Amino acid sequence: MSTFFERNREELAARGIDLARVPPGQYVTERFPVLHAGVVPDVDLDEWDFVVDGLVDNPVALDWRQIEELPSESITADIHCVTKWSKLDTSWEGIPVRQVWDMVQPRSEATHVVIKAYHGFTANLPVADFIRPGNLFAHTYDGEPLELDHGYPLRLVVPHLYFWKSVKWVRGFTVVDADQPGFWERNGYHMYGDPFKEQRYWGD
Ligand SMILES: Nc1nc2c(c(=O)[nH]1)N[C@H]1C(S)=C(S)[C@@H](COP(=O)(O)O)O[C@H]1N2
Ligand SMILES: [Mo]
Questions:
Q1: Considering only CA atoms, which residue is closest to atom 5 of ligand 1?
Q2: Residue 138: CB within 6 Å of ligand 1?
């Protein structure tokens, strides 16, 4: 008898989907599961700000109005959660990470960033992975404002790494010169998290 994962791949192949898009150990779902530690924050856009600090020449604290005025871009991307679901062709709109990066004038020593969200949630990323073309601070999913569960009003979207790096309810980032584990990375998840290399947990 075939396994759930095998049947999932057979269904995808029957629909003409290139199986190379599905990382090892993943299955594709049409649903959009909700996953996070802790509780959904109480978001008040009047109090909300987006802070960039650390190794930058131009630290900023942008309010929601300033964020809304930045030019947006749309992307379509496959996303991969470490709990084994993947979702193909998700569509997002938001501010390119690269645009914010250039605005803050990072110093040459910068190697990593610590992404920050409500309730002290963090995630770490190498600079090159953070500023990749297509990465967004997204305010829109599938043509609608983000749902609170999925990170309203703003979330990071970094599709090429496991989705735990795509910090929901993002409030800014700190630019640093060494890799330091974020919330899930301190709790056993891989420091980098490439889904195609199955870098799920420490030691993978
Ligand atoms: N602020 C915050 N962002 C987070 C998390 C979290 O616990 N807190 N969990 C991550 C994990 S583990 C996953 S899989 C995705 C899930 O995003 P979704 O709920 O929109 O599917 O959010 C990521 N972003
Ligand atoms: Mo996750």
A1: 36
A2: no
